[in-house]
Specification:
18 helices; Rossmann fold; 3 domains
């Protein structure tokens, strides 16, 4: 048996195993260059003849990508129905993308009614909760949620990912009838970077869900957290701009303030040693939600120095725990938080040190900004996010928005009788 036959047999076995298939797909999404090589180099070698491999359009349709769906049904004010086909592959994603997808799925499920008679003839709209789990050719009509285009804005730091966006994702985005995104800052950049008409892009803010807190006392994951500290959540990717906070520690060495890092940040210790602040750094790695919430709730502040975020979830999660934030004066933080946190220039370590010191010295200031951010966070619900999304999807179905509370006719009749 030739090597190509063996590899095709192995590939068929993998594709027959749905959990393994989804796990591998999630892995390749994290490594776009490897994904590009697999899709456009290795798979054509396995499945096409030499003459076919020279015809590049065929390479995009080698093997149908797994694209599971779940249908929801909604009724309009005028009594008509439409079918929403939710493409569910993203529910397996372990990143924030997966959390958003699950939140929207759950809200749609609450609002969906039983499939009406003649469901096969209903207007149908397809929805992908992220562009990263879309097939090469989209069904129509289709709406995609695109969170941001950060790799394209900083392409010199995300070479492989930016290439993946240009070659693979941009053509997908251009097929979409409508696009949802999570801030006006993202909407402008998506239109510009993906060459989309702004009229096709609709802003629907994310919902905010409080992190679960343990009922019993949780042992802190480090003795260093008995000292005052600020907390950073996330990776050390370039746009997260963690360096400015590490440099700020140089200006706080007369204090006992620590910087606590939650997430995959082991590589920052060398940077901390360069600035001689390694003793002020606490690396906690990945934590479960309850432990992360406990660490956040005890912090002086959450530091959020990103150069760019499509939305910026951590400051709101911190606010719901009573912890204020210090954020970069950059999109989309300045759009969503406005005057609900301390803002600093993203390239000024002294300003960050000064803001940290202000919180350290003033408990009332901490409470003031935490309360303001908390009020904003409480207004950003997944219920509202789902309803705004459904308004766009219903319009695509050629109808008015779904009924405001998305209740079944039976529920409305019951309430009317009770009144």
């Amino acid at each position: 048996m030739g090597i190509r036959k063996i590899m095709r047999w192995l590939l068929a076995k993998i594709l027959a195993n749905t959990p393994l298939k989804n796990a591998l797909r999630g892995f390749f999404i994290r490594f776009p260059r490897l994904d590009f090589w697999l899709r456009y180099r290795f798979l054509p070698f396995l499945t096409l003849s030499a003459s076919q491999r020279d015809n590049k359009p065929h390479a995009q349709q080698i093997i149908p990508e797994p694209d599971p769906t779940h249908s929801f049904y909604f009724q309009h004010r005028d009594g008509h129905y439409f079918e929403l086909v939710f493409h569910t592959a993203a529910l397996a994603d372990q990143r924030g993308i997966g959390r958003v997808s699950k939140a929207l799925f759950n809200e749609f499920e609450k609002r969906s009614i039983q499939a009406p008679h003649k469901a096969m003839s209903l207007p149908k709209v397809h929805f992908y909760p992220t562009i990263h789990w879309c097939p090469t050719v989209l069904p129509r009509p289709c709406c995609i949620l695109i969170h941001d285009v950060i790799p394209l804005l900083y392409d010199s730091h995300f070479n492989a990912v930016a290439e993946h966006w240009r070659k693979d994702l941009q053509p997908i985005a251009q097929q979409a009838d409508q696009v949802l995104t999570i801030s006006y800052a993202s909407a402008g950049d998506i239109a510009e970077q993906l060459n989309l008409s702004p009229e096709r892009i609709h802003v629907v803010y994310n919902g905010i869900q409080a992190l679960p807190q343990a009922k019993a006392e949780i042992t802190l994951p480090s003795d260093h957290l008995n000292k005052p500290y600020v907390v950073f959540i996330g990776s050390s990717d370039y746009h997260k701009n963690l360096q400015v906070v590490i440099r700020a520690l140089q200006h706080l060495q007369d204090t006992s303030i620590q910087l606590c890092l939650i997430g995959h940040n082991e590589d920052v210790m060398n940077l901390a040693k360069r600035y001689e602040v390694q003793d002020q750094l606490v690396l906690l790695g990945r934590l479960d939600d309850q432990t992360a919430a406990n660490v956040m709730s005890r912090a002086l502040a959450l530091v959020f120095p990103s150069l760019y975020e499509g939305f910026g979830l951590p400051p709101f999660e911190a606010a719901l725990l009573g912890t204020p934030s210090i954020c970069s004066q950059r999109p989309a933080m300045d759009e969503l938080l406005k005057d609900a946190c301390l803002f600093c220039p993203p390239d000024d370590p002294k300003a960050w040190a000064s803001a940290i010191r202000r919180y350290w010295q003033d408990a009332e200031l901490r409470q003031h900004y935490a309360s303001k951010a908390q009020k904003i966070a409480q207004q950003l619900t997944w219920e509202q996010s789902a309803q705004a999304s459904l308004a766009v999807l219903a319009t695509m179905a050629g109808q008015a928005s779904p009924i405001s509370e998305s209740k079944t006719p039976q529920a409305e009749q019951t309430e009317a009788k009770a009144a």
